[in-house]
User: What shape does this take?
Amino acid sequence: MHLEEKGWLLGFKPGEIIGTVGESRRLEAIRINTHPHNPFAVHYRVHVKDRGWLPWVCAGEVSGTIGESRQVEAIQIDVNPALNKKIMYQVHLQDIGWTQWVHNNEIAGTTGQSRRLEALILNVN
Assistant: This one.
């Protein structure tokens, strides 16, 4: 995850908070890597202020912007259903706080409300 004024935050495990809460920092880009000993096909995209939804990318690729001061406002994550994996994620939104958990291919966050994502929790089962 690339965070305003902090850059890339690395090395997070499932269930950990990625980002900041209470610091008013915008999430600007995300890169989801799978574990080398348990790789699986994950696809994701983000909604960026003044840009809308960016194209889907695969594990290890960046979705979002870097160096443009643009906030991510929503995220959508999916895995190949044939792999029997379930992605669960929730986001911390500006002025709202933690949202409800969503699952494979559901949207977490808002569009058209100019609310930045500040943190993310991701679980894989």
The chain has one domain: 2-124.
